[in-house]
């Protein structure tokens, strides 16, 4: 779709897009995902240690935020939805912190199970700064297990998911490859008629889910070839639809925007709304999924849902680290976007 045609369609759809945003709070969503706690430890570099050639940092602040699939949960809650979460945490302080963050945000955590054999996935980033200088990340420490949950835990989580299906409008599968989304869990999640899949790899495991949202590298990995021009992009969209048997595929392409494909053969391209003020794309895919899912819950077309997902992502990439946005911020950004288009006289 030429950009001028997209602009005309966006302007014509403005009232409906604002109306969809107003109804996000009515949506009920279950997220099944790999739950991660992101930790950020920051301090001032004092000197080089005498024990080893390493920096000594005097600790100043610790910040803990939801990461991985937990970031998708948090994004949905911050957009006003009624959110339930199903997943696993370890029997550790990190798991307790993650549950507390969710509960403060009004998220239903009853389907989070404690797996004493596996730690809560935790990514600890240690950053330091000298006096009057910028803070820079020095090292990251990851805590996780490469072992799958025991079969009993898998079946128990699948049962928890099935008990929630009649109470939600959509299910989001947020698969970061940390072992929570095993075959029984995926089967349970796919029992819902509206399932949105955001998986880093092995998309075929989610065959028959309604909507998939791979980014460009994930799409290339799934189809087995580089997506480097309009022809290979179209072929990839068609091949992904065949691989997944999905109704719709949304490929997010960074500063190239997004491309939509559906089983009717329709193909749409949405330009990036923010190409310049991009500071950190970490977690932006979770934001896209959140806004897209809530839009679909409220009856949006796939194009409308992708536009609002794109809009939400254009906001969070302006911030460092995993971030969320709000309805008010999205309304302001949409109004600004419309004014920019009108100012160009398109």
UniProtKB/TrEMBL annotation:
A single Gene Ontology CC term: cytosol
Annotated NCBIfam families: rfaE_dom_I
CDD domains named in the record: RfaE_like
Protein name: D-glycero-beta-D-manno-heptose-7-phosphate kinase
Protein's UniProt keywords contain Transferase: yes
Molecular function in Gene Ontology: heptose 7-phosphate kinase activity; heptose-1-phosphate adenylyltransferase activity; phosphotransferase activity, alcohol group as acceptor
PROSITE patterns: PFKB_KINASES_2
Domain Carbohydrate kinase PfkB: 28-325
Gene: rfaE1
